[in-house]
Amino acid sequence: MDDVGAAVDFYTKNFGFTVNRQFSGFADVTRCPLRLLLSGPPSSGARATPAEYAAAGRNRIHLIVEDLDAEIGRLRGAGLQFRSDVVEGPGGRQILLTDPAGNLVELFQPAQQATQ
């Protein structure tokens, strides 16, 4: 991650993360039980990932939302670009975007469970 400050702004302003700690080149942010460690060039966490794990698309940050359409509208209004269209399946609906470092972020609205 080249710009930790941009990543902190992205997650706190758009998704309600809270900054626990922030130093030059490193930040620790949380949203409910999810903790993200944002590591820039001076941080040990920014060391090269082994080649067999470095390909994009292997991991993504998964954020559950109550109203996917409302979130899409809010984020588009904030100038964010999405990397996919909405995809719907038996488990729910999702859409992908990327953070400032290119990490995938999935917004997911679970399907409504039928009452018996």
Q: Could you characterize the architecture of this molecule?
A:
This is VOC family protein. Residues 1-110 form the VOC domain. It comes from Arthrobacter sulfonylureivorans. It holds the Pfam family Glyoxalase. This protein has helices at 4-15, 68-77, and strands spanning 18-23, 26-31, 34-39, 61-64, 87-89, 92-98, 104-110. The longest helix is centred in the N-terminal third of the chain and has 12 residues, at 4-15. The protein has 2 helices and 7 strands. The termini are far apart. The chain is globular and about 45 Å long. The model has no long low-confidence stretch (mean pLDDT 87). It folds into 2 domains: 1-42, no CATH class; 56-116, Signal recognition particle alu RNA binding heterodimer, srp9/1 (2-Layer Sandwich). By secondary structure, it is α+β, with helices and mostly antiparallel strands. The strands form 2 sheets. Strands 4-7-6-5 form a 4-stranded mixed β-sheet, with helices on one face.
Task: Spell out the key features of this protein.
single chain, 116 residues, alpha+beta, Signal recognition particle alu RNA binding heterodimer, srp9/1, 2 domains, 4-stranded mixed sheet, 3-stranded antiparallel sheet, 19% helix
What is the structural class? alpha+beta
Strand content is: 25-35%
**What does the oligomeric state look like here?**
single chain
What fold name stands as the CATH topology of the largest domain? Signal recognition particle alu RNA binding heterodimer, srp9/1
- Low-confidence regions: none
Number of strands: 7
Shape: globular
Helix content: 10-25%
Count up the helices.
2
Output the radius of gyration.
16 Å
* Terminal Cα span: 48 Å
Give the mean pLDDT.
Answer: 87
CATH architecture of the largest domain: 2-Layer Sandwich
Counting structural domains, the number is 2
* Highest CATH level, the class of the largest domain: Alpha Beta
Biggest sheet details = 4 strands, mixed
Strand arrangement in the largest pleated sheet: 4-7-6-5
Succession of helices and strands: HEEEEHEEE
